[in-house]
Predict the 3D structure of the following.
Amino acid sequence: MTVGVLAVAAGLVVTVTGAAKQSAGILACGLMPDTKTSVRWEQFDKPYLQKAFKNAGVPARVVNAQGDPQKQKTQADQCISDGAKVLIIAPIDSGSAAAIEKAAAKKGVKSIDYDRQVEGGSASLYVSFDGHTVGVLQGQGVVAGLKANGKYGSKPVVASLWGGQEDANSFLFKGGVDQVLNPLYDDGTLSKGPQQFVPGWDNQKAGTIFEQMLVQTSNKIDAVAAANDGLANAVVVSLKAHKLDPIPLSGQDATTQGVQNIISGWQTMTVFKDVRKLATAAAQDAINLVKGKPIKTTGFVTTKGRSKERAYLIPPQSITKANYTILFTSGFLKKGDVCNGEYAQYC
């Protein structure tokens, strides 16, 4: 056999081996919801889930449904066909996710609710951050911002942009914010401004909604409780377009954009949810479910449409201009990604 033929043969072996490896069965499957509502799903959750499974030597797949419930169902079916014994589901909406979980259960496949609760579902566990505490931190951030800019004592108007109503977490965040702000509305310290849910956590729709809020109040909005950094940035864009000054503004997810808005003075705070811890915990419990071992929990949560659900909840952390560098030192964000271009001057 000539050298050329040997090379071709070797190439065929590599190709066939690679194909076999690619079509090998999996034991776990992560179903991420989209890339539109937050950059976190692809930038953080997916790679950390993959890393956790790889480190444990468990074959797994992590896919993204791009906001399409039918696509998420198809992805789940494919994962099950390829051998998955457990699904980690970050739902697009509870209805479609519950259907996936129940269909999977009939085939002996277990599910984990990931980050968002699935109302009416049948998952073995809910792995997330303490959503109520997220809202409490956001409400406290808004109050702190109003005290810092001197408007707290002048009955400032506070508006709210909640997340999508199809996401059970939106109500957890809202409940935490309400716990902080409602007593201040009731005693007249704060004035309750417009409040609205943003369908699908859509940032573009959030911008339109906030524009309408400005019209409704003749631009007299003194602070905004925004449910995440994407919605907060929609507020920032609108304020800048109207040449209005920065106002106290909450966020969530500690995104690059959110931190840039914080250091430049346009956003008051964000909530750091260390997705590395979330992904690692979810992957470990998925492995435990596959192997029939006990799963780790911190207690139970009440999820609509089903019995109490076992949960593993991770505490979130407030991030402001005073402590944002912990995102760099912890390795969650890269300083070079945040402190560049027009934002370099603020670092």
